[in-house]
């Protein structure tokens, strides 16, 4: 078996181990993407405010809907629909492992092997690749485009590369300035290359526009709505704002003392690919200017930095190796990167949360497996569950109580519509005929499941008009 296949097999194995069906990195993973695919396939699901404001592209949910529908058809009643959707996203996010080989191969075979191996084993690359988020999908599209589209490449490669670079910008519009900077540095005044890149970009934009139109949106109207809501209306600030030092603190938290050799080697590697280095810096600068900051937002910068550091580490060692065989150098480098990755992944300093939100999602699935005839989520920390995603076809309701009296009124009027309630512990408004089955989770993610005996009368909701039934797919 060739080294390429060995590294690929290791990368796949690590991602299989890291995959946790009930774990999500952020509520967006379930509510913004998996939940919306669920709406397309099953016709039910929560409708977040972002979709009501038209500031989300339907591209990711549409991509997930195919494997989700297949799982529904093959094993109705099981979680196969969810597993196939997540596995499909993970297969797309695997692309950087192959792209690293292609980018490193431009220098030498040793650079290719080390670059591929580092992306294969680096714990953040593994972690994010098994989560359904636009950041890892956009990084995969970008690095694939960067690997394919090189100055002077064939027409087909440039068209494909242009399509992938545009796809990356569509998946994560905030990455657009970095992608443009990469193309400007990489291709300069090579007008022939720009022509074919533009054709590829237009093809990807046309496909995205077709999805927009099919879902009742103006082409790229979601992009303007995103800018309008987050930058003009400053909605993102409601989720917290941080200073320019925040990303430096996050990188230190995730890389610890390894940040010193990583940045040193990345500077060396940047000389091999100034275009990639420029993209990483521009992306960081753009996100420094945005008040709401999360580590996943700069995943493109982090992934490029690790890739350039892997390439630079080969350059560094080659200067010092003397008569040491190349194979020994490669093995030693890969082993060093692997040890550093494993140490960070096993520590609690990185705080990625390998099983984050797992308890709430398991609780939702437990409610659905009783079997229940209806499940109600109580306003508050409902985001700690997967919404309809883990409930299959069980009708989902949402209790919107602004105070205890309002909640009691809703429960009293609509209690016959469902027989299970998921709420934070200590909720005094839950009807007395419900008994608690159990609680799970920590802190703000802690939830409890309460159930009652008897069936459901779903028309209770429409009669009372006191509860928002969020299982309708009318917000598409």
Written account of the structure:
With 476 residues, this protein is mostly helical. It contains 21 helices and 5 strands. A 5-stranded mixed beta sheet has the order 2-1-3-5-4, with helices on both faces. Strand 4 and strand 5 form a beta hairpin. The model is unreliable at 462-476 (pLDDT under 50).
Measured distance between first and last alpha carbons: 48 Å
Largest sheet, if any? 5 strands, mixed
Q: What series of H and E elements makes up the topology?
A: HHHHHHHHHHHHHHHHHHHEEHEEEH
Low-confidence stretches: 462-476
Helix content: 55-70%
Gross morphology is globular
Mean pLDDT: 88
Strand content: under 5%
Radius of gyration: 24 Å
Count the beta strands: 5
Number of helices: 21
Report the structural category: mainly alpha
- In the sheet with the most strands, the strands line up as 2-1-3-5-4
Secondary structure elements and their pairing?
Blueprint: H1 3-18, H2 27-42, H3 49-52, H4 59-74, H5 80-93, H6 95-105, H7 109-121, H8 123-129, H9 134-148, H10 155-171, H11 176-187, H12 191-214, H13 221-232, H14 246-255, H15 259-270, H16 274-288, H17 299-320, H18 326-346, H19 358-368, E1 375-378, E2 396-399, H20 404-414, E3 420-423, E4 435-440, E5 447-451, H21 459-464
Parallel strand pairs: 1-2, 1-3
Antiparallel strand pairs: 3-5, 4-5
């Amino acid at each position: 078996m060739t080294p390429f296949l060995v590294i690929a097999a290791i990368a796949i194995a690590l991602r299989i181990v890291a995959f946790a069906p009930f774990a999500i990195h952020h509520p967006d993973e379930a509510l913004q993407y998996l939940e919306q695919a669920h709406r397309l396939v099953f016709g039910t699901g929560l409708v977040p405010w972002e979709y009501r404001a038209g500031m989300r592209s339907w591209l990711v949910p549409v991509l997930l809907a195919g494997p989700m529908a297949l799982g529904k058809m093959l094993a109705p009643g099981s979680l196969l629909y969810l597993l196939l959707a997540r596995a499909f996203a993970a297969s797309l996010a695997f692309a950087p492992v192959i792209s690293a080989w292609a980018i490193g191969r431009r220098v030498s075979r040793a650079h290719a092997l080390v670059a591929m191996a580092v992306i294969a084993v680096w714990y953040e690359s593994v972690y994010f690749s098994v989560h359904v988020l636009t950041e890892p999908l956009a990084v995969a599209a970008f690095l694939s485009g960067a690997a394919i589209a090189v100055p002077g490449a064939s027409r087909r490669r440039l068209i494909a590369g242009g399509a992938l670079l545009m796809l990356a910008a569509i998946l994560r519009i905030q990455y657009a300035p970095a992608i443009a900077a990469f193309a400007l540095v990489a291709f300069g005044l090579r007008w022939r290359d720009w022509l074919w890149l533009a054709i590829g970009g237009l093809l990807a934009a046309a496909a995205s526009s077709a999805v927009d139109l099919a879902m009742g949106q103006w082409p790229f109207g979601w992009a303007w709505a995103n800018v309008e809501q987050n930058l003009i209306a400053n909605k993102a600030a409601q989720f917290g704002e941080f200073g320019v030092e925040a990303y430096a603190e996050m990188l230190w938290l995730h890389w610890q003392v390894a940040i010193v050799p990583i940045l040193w080697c990345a500077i060396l590697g940047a000389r091999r690919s100034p275009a990639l280095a420029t993209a990483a810096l521009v992306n960081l600068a753009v996100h420094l200017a945005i008040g709401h900051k999360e580590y996943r937002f700069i995943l493109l910068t982090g992934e490029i930095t690790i890739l350039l550091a892997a390439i630079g580490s080969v350059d560094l060692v080659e200067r010092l190796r003397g008569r040491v065989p190349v194979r020994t150098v490669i093995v030693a480098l890969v082993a060093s990167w692997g040890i550093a990755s494993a140490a960070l992944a096993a520590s609690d300093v990185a705080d990625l949360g390998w099983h984050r939100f797992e308890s709430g999602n398991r609780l939702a699935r437990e409610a659905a497996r009783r079997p229940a005839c209806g499940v109600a989520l109580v306003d508050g920390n409902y985001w700690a569950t997967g919404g309809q995603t883990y409930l299959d076809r069980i009708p989902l309701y949402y209790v919107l109580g602004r105070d205890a009296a309002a909640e009691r009124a809703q429960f009293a009027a609509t209690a016959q519509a469902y027989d299970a309630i998921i709420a934070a512990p200590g909720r005094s408004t839950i009807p007395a005929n419900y008994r608690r089955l159990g609680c799970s989770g920590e802190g703000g993610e802690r939830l409890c499941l309460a159930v009652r005996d008897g069936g459901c009368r779903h028309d209770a909701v429409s009669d009372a008009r006191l509860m928002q039934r969020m299982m309708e797919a009318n917000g598409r």
